[in-house]
Amino acid sequence: MKQLLILNADLEKSESTRFLIDAYINGAVKNGAVVKEIAIVDLIFNSNKQFINRQAADLEPDLQKSFDAIKRANHIVLFCPVYVDVIPAKVKGFFDRLFLPDSVFTFQRQSFNNNFSGTSARIVSILDQATFEDWKQNKKTTYLSIKRSTFENCRISPVHTSTIGHLLSLENDYSKKWLRKMEKFGLEMI
Hints:
Layout: E1 3-8, H1 15-30, E2 34-39, H2 61-72, E3 75-82, H3 89-98, E4 120-127, H4 129-138, H5 144-151, E5 159-164, H6 173-188
Parallel strand pairs: 1-2, 1-3, 3-4, 4-5
């Protein structure tokens, strides 16, 4: 049975992000997946990377539970709103803390390693209006640090991406198109 992990990186828990997540989950459940969702905003942890010399065992309880869920997942989907071309600091801190070089990229410790092979991922980047207009012109992405430096370095493959413009209304054709796409992606676990 497939284990799907949804990482909700919307710090405002907006209706539009929920709309996309629910569509993805609906498709995955139809395919028999077991779904776990983590809302990063609800986690209690210090997002500051100052703890570079801490051991992985020193993760706060919420981060430890999150890391355990990541290790169990067959497929991870990150829903991440981007404001003014920047991923929110708490989201960046979540990945910085969980995937510190001394935690994940060390081969000596048995409990933590960087081999997540067999796990796939999707990053759904939800852009605000200004960032979406800029993206339409130059196609500059905002998720490459998570895609390449985190997921792909940990042998998560493939890592699919979707860039979505600001969903001004959940009833327009653009939003409905993405609703159908998310449900299809969930059904196919891609």
